[in-house]
């Protein structure tokens, strides 16, 4: 699960565009948005980098929010080689 802060998300139209961009990457993605806190939670098979790039491309740059359960979002050096 990926939690994002999107400061430019201010209305339901913004949420719709964000949903559409993420769905274009992964039609099975689950996106939950909270306009008041400018946050979006994404459950998707796509990588964080792909989701961030898609959102940036449509004018909604996002910042990953670290959580106690997902160290990967807060520390890129934690990646392990396959």
Would you summarize the structure shown here?
By secondary structure, this protein is of the alpha+beta class. It has helices spanning 12-25, 48-57, 71-74, and strands at 2-5, 30-34, 39-43, 63-64.
Question: Could you explain how this protein is built, in words?
Answer:
The protein has a four-stranded antiparallel sheet with strand order 2-3-1-4, with helices on one face. The protein is globular, with a radius of gyration of 12 Å. The chain has helices spanning 12-25, 48-57, 71-74; strands at 2-5, 30-34, 39-43, 63-64. It has one domain: Alpha-Beta Plaits (2-Layer Sandwich). It is built from three helices and four strands. The protein has 82 residues and is of the alpha+beta class. β2 (30-34) and β3 form a beta hairpin.
Sequence of secondary-structure elements: EHEEHEH
The number of helical elements comes to 3
- In round numbers, the mean pLDDT is 86
Biggest sheet strand order reads 2-3-1-4
The CA-CA distance between the termini, in Å, is: 20 Å
Protein name: HMA domain-containing protein
InterPro entries: HMA_dom, HMA_dom_sf
Pfam families: HMA (PF00403)
List key phrases describing it.
34% helix; HMA_dom_sf; 82 residues; alpha+beta; Alpha-Beta Plaits; HMA domain-containing protein; HMA_dom; disordered C terminus; single chain
Helix and strand topology:
Blueprint: E1 2-5, H1 12-25, E2 30-34, E3 39-43, H2 48-57, E4 63-64, H3 71-74
Antiparallel strand pairs: 1-3, 1-4, 2-3
Helix pairs in contact: 1-2
């Amino acid at each position: 699960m990926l939690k994002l802060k999107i400061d430019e998300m201010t209305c339901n139209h913004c949420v719709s565009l964000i949903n559409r961009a993420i769905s274009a990457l992964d039609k099975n993605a689950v996106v939950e948005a909270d306009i008041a806190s400018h946050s979006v939670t994404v459950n998707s098979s796509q990588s964080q980098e792909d989701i961030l790039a898609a959102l940036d491309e449509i004018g909604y740059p996002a910042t990953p929010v670290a959580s106690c359960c997902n160290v990967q979002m807060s520390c890129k050096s934690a990646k392990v080689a396959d």
